[in-house]
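Self-study notes.
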Amino acid sequence: MNPTELGVLFANEVRTHHNDHRRQAVMAILSRRGFPPGMTVLEFIDGLRGTKDMWEVVTRMDLVAFCACVSNVSALQGEIQQLLAENNVLRGERDRGQARRRTRLTIVQKDRLKEIVSGLLAAQKDGLSRAELAAQISDPTLRELGLPRRGVATKLRVPLSELLHDQAIGTRGEKRLLKYVHGSTERRGGQAPSE
C-alpha cells in the first residue's frame, strides 16, 4: 500500500467519523428540543433549513429516526417494546433475533400434510378437530417438512380444504365443534348422516 492510498483511506475514515459525530449531535439536539407546541411542521422544517449543518444531517436521516428524535420516543422505548411483546408482535424476534415472516406451504409440504391428515383420520372413527390433528403430527415429521410446531393448525387449513373439496374427508358438527372424519359425508346443516 503506497502513502497516497493511506492518505485517502485516512481522509475517508476521518470524514466517516466526523459525519457520525455530526449525526449524533443533531439527534441529541432534536431529542432535547423536541417539536415545539403550537408550531406547524412546515415552520419546524423551515427552521431546520436555516441551519446548514443541521439540515445537511437531517436530509440524510431516515424518517423513523427523525420522528423518534423529534418526539423523544427514546423515553418511551421500553414501554413500546413491552406492549409489542405482549401483543405477540415480537414473537419470532425473541426466538430467532430477526423479524417473523409469514410463509406459505410449498406444494410438497401441502401434499405431505394431506397424506398425514388422511392417515390420522382413517385411524380415528369419531374424527378430529383441526387443533387435534395438529397435535397428532409428530415433531420429527414437522422437522422433516421444515415447519415449526407453532402455527401448524393454521397451516392445516389449506390441505383440509382441498381434501374436503376432493371429498376424501368429511365434517361433523358446526363451527367450533367441527370435526373432520375419514371419507366423504353428506352435508345436512354440517351434520353427517345418522348411521
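Second protein, same conventions, sequence then structure:
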Amino acid sequence: MRIHRRILQSYSIPLTLLAMAGLHACGEDPKKEAAAAPPAETPYGSVSEIGRYLQRIEPLKVKIGQLQARYESGLSSNRGDDQRLGTGQNLANLAAELEPQMKSLLESCESIEPPALLAPVHRDTKKLILLRLGAYQKTREGWHVESTEGGSFRLANDQYYRAAESQLAEANRLIQQLNREMSKIYIALEQVSAGT
C-alpha cells in the first residue's frame, strides 16, 4: 500500500497564551474580581471560560498529534527519494496498537463541555478523532482482506486502503481548519489581555 507523504500539523497553541488564560481563569479571589470588574469578553466568550476549556482540550490535541505521528511512522520505510511506503501489515499493526488510545481520547473529548461559542471547534475536534479512528479501522480491515488465504491486495486497496487514505486526508484538511480557528481564538485572548 502506498500512502503519500502528509504534513502533520499539530494545532498546538502558544503556551504563554494558555497560561495567561489559565491565570485569568483561576484568579485570586473570584468574589473580589467579580465585584471589581466585569469579566473580560472575547468574541468566543469570557476569557475565564475559554481558559478553562483550553486547559482541558489542549492535552488531548497534543496527544492526537502524537498518535498520528506514531501511525505515520509506519510509512517511514524511506527509499531515499523523499517518498515513503507503508505496508498493510505494518500500518494495520500500528492501527491496532493506537486505536484504544484514540478511543480513550474520544471519551475524554466527549466529557468536556465547551463554551457555547466554541462548540463548533469542539465538534470538529471530535470529528478529527473519528476520522482517524475510521482510517485505522479501514487499514486493519484491508490487511485482514489482504492477508487471508486467497486475499487480494487489489481488493484491499480498492475497498479499504483508499478509504483510509481519504479519511486521513480529510482529517489533515480539518487540522488546517482547526489551526485557523484556534489562531483566531488565541488572537482574541491576546487582544483582551493587552487591553485592545
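Instructor comment on the second fold: The longest strand covers residues 41-42.
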